Amino acid sequence: MNEYFAAQYSMRLTVGEHAPRHIRRIVRSFLEEWCMPELSDAVELGVTELLTNVVRHVPDRRCALLLLRQRAGVRVEVTDGSDELPRMPATPDTETENGRGLLLLDAMADKWGVSLWSGGGKTVWFECGAGPAPGTPHTRDPQTTRDTQYAKKVSRKY
């Protein structure tokens, strides 16, 4: 019997401090349906970091989340109305509890970046691969990540 699994999940929400916990459950269930449970830890961590940044840095706390199934992995996008770009600290402050989210995202994602929209706002996105075929080395391409980190977009429809 053929089963259909949606190739994407999207929602608009206003996030509070407990929202990431609930969204992690949703993400986990889609990854299980898509037969990619090995990505759960990385994708859940990435979603948590992006939504936490919305809670802390976006005044109205509104955003849109897109979870997109790809051929060999997952892409996650969080779009908000703020033009404030996320900043990765040159060196994390060991005395603070905050400021490490983008460092974590950079460590766990294969690619990530920020797209600014001409009408205002931005999308922070990341991609995680489902892993290489046996015998194939899996490497990150830091140059691709850097080059796409602040790509400008002209328009976006929702």
| Global Rg | 16 Å
Using the alpha-carbon principal axes, give the shape: globular
Number of helices: 4
How would a textbook summarize the main sheet?
6 strands, mixed
Mean pLDDT: 79
Structural class: alpha+beta
Strand composition percent: 25-35%
Strand order of the largest sheet: 1-2-3-5-4-6
Helical fraction equals: 25-40%
What's the count of strands? 6
Name the assembly state: single chain
SSE sequence, one letter per element? EHHEEHEEHE
* Distance between the ends: 34 Å
Would you give an account of this structure?
This protein has 158 residues and is α+β, with helices and mostly antiparallel strands. Helices cover 30% and strands 26% of the residues. The protein is built from four helices and six strands, in the order βααββαββαβ. The protein has helices spanning 19-33, 40-57, 101-108, 142-148, and strands at residues 8-14, 62-70, 73-80, 111-116, 122-129, 150-152. Strands 1-2-3-5-4-6 form a six-stranded mixed β-sheet. Helix 1 runs antiparallel to helix 2 and helix 2 packs antiparallel against helix 3. Mean pLDDT is 79; it is low at 133-158.
Structure summary:
The chain is built from 4 helices and 6 strands. It has about 160 residues and is α+β, with helices and mostly antiparallel strands.
